Design the sequence.
């Protein structure tokens, strides 16, 4: 019987049907989705930290306003995604508090790029331009996800990301149009971020989990396909603004129709993500702990206020 | 007066089991639009649900009204495609069922009408 149920589910997936939160689904599908969306949600929230550091230091009032808007969007994305994750986690007896506890205990990972420092304004620009650019590629690739609640939220997120795209480009264009020291600052920021951005898409091997996600039509593209799309889109633009990509091996192999590049240090970056040992990992997790645990009494008081009002 | 870590831990232990309700959020963009479902959020009360809905869903879009409905108060149809089954052809209810009118009017050297023309005409001064 469970096999027949699973077969019926797979038939729905193959027909291109969308799955809803209350539909029956194999545990494997639920867990793969939950892991993906949980990490996505937490990465949106942790991704706001490197940028929020620049809100008080932004060079003009307009930049401050737009950066603040962007940080707010990222936290908003986290909120929307957490709701999707919660509905998946509910049958497993896990709620939002636990999903957020996981950040502090290290049970959930967040993207490598958000463990890094953003020492100059040009880093804020590179994050907006290339980190968001990379994230936009991975997120648009999920728009056709078989899990409808995720696909719906991604649609809203991608609409806002179109602003992030322009916002990032605007910052780097100002620097590229600027004085030599500004272009130098931009170049140095690119040097700092390049390897991390290549790693962001994940290793080229199609893991067993990735293969299953493709069978379930949770995702349809491999890590390497997405990295290639990113390179095709961004390498010419990076060069057009006069920046040099810090990889002498980078070239487009016409015959294979593929970009060749020096591979990031997979092992080192995986450890950063797994063990939270990047330059800013612990500091940002501590900020999250402060928001989550130290403010818990506020959440409790709000619920108590309502209960008191009803009685 | 700052709390000690022990006090903080006690407060957290008590507070960590408080859970918010799920609210479904509906936004009305203008007087002439119906409320449209945009998503859900967690909130400690209906009032907070409305505040958070504005923060979550209206950072850019304009709106004139928001509904927050506790999810447990939403009644939905069963997950049964038969519930929406169409027993027979319903073209007779639709414009598409009368596509031949245009051709037939031609014989009388006149044109078929459509509702958009009528609206435009009535609006014209
Ligand atoms: Fe985002
Ligand atoms: Fe973004």
Sequence:
């Amino acid at each position: 019987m469970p096999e027949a149920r699973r077969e019926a589910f797979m038939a729905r997936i193959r027909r291109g049907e969308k799955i809803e939160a209350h539909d029956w689904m194999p545990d494997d599908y639920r867990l793969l989705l939950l892991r993906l969306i949980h990490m996505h949600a937490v990465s949106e929230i942790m991704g706001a930290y490197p940028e929020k550091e620049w809100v008080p230091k932004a060079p003009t009032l307009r930049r401050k306003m737009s950066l603040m808007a962007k940080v707010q969007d990222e936290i908003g994305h986290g909120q929307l995604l957490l709701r999707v994750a919660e509905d998946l986690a509910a049958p497993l007896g896990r709620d939002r508090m636990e999903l957020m506890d996981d950040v502090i205990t290290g049970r959930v990972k967040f993207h490598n790029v958000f463990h890094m420092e953003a020492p100059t304004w040009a880093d804020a620009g590179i994050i907006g331009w290339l980190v968001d650019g990379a994230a936009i590629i991975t997120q648009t690739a999920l728009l056709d996800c078989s899990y409808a609640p995720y696909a719906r939220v991604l649609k809203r997120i991608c609409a806002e990301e179109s602003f992030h795209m322009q916002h990032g480009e605007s910052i780097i264009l100002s620097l590229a149009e600027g004085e030599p020291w500004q272009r130098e600052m931009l170049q140095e920021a690119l040097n700092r971020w390049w390897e991390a951005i290549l790693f962001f898409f994940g290793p080229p091997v199609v893991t067993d989990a990735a293969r299953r996600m493709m069978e379930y039509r949770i995702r349809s593209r491999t890590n390497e396909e997405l990295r290639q799309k990113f390179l095709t889109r961004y390498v010419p633009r990076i060069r057009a603004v006069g920046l040099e990509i810090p990889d002498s091996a980078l070239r487009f192999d016409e015959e294979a129709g593929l970009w060749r590049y020096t591979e990031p240090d997979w092992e080192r970056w995986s450890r950063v993500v797994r063990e939270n040992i990047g330059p800013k990992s612990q500091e940002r997790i501590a900020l999250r702990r402060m928001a989550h645990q130290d403010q818990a009494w506020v959440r409790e008081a709000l619920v108590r206020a309502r209960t008191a009002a009803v009685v | 007066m700052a709390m000690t870590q022990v006090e903080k831990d006690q407060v957290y232990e008590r507070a960590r089991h408080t859970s918010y309700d799920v609210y479904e959020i509906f936004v009305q963009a203008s007087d002439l639009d119906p409320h449209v479902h945009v998503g859900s959020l967690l909130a400690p009360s209906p009032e907070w649900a409305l505040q958070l809905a504005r923060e979550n869903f209206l950072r850019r879009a304009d709106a004139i009204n928001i509904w927050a409905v506790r999810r447990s108060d939403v009644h939905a149809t069963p997950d049964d495609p038969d519930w929406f089954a169409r027993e027979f052809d319903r073209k007779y209810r639709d414009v598409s069922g009368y596509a031949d009118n245009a051709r037939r009017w031609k014989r009388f050297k006149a044109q078929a009408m459509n509702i958009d023309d009528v609206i435009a005409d009535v609006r014209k001064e």
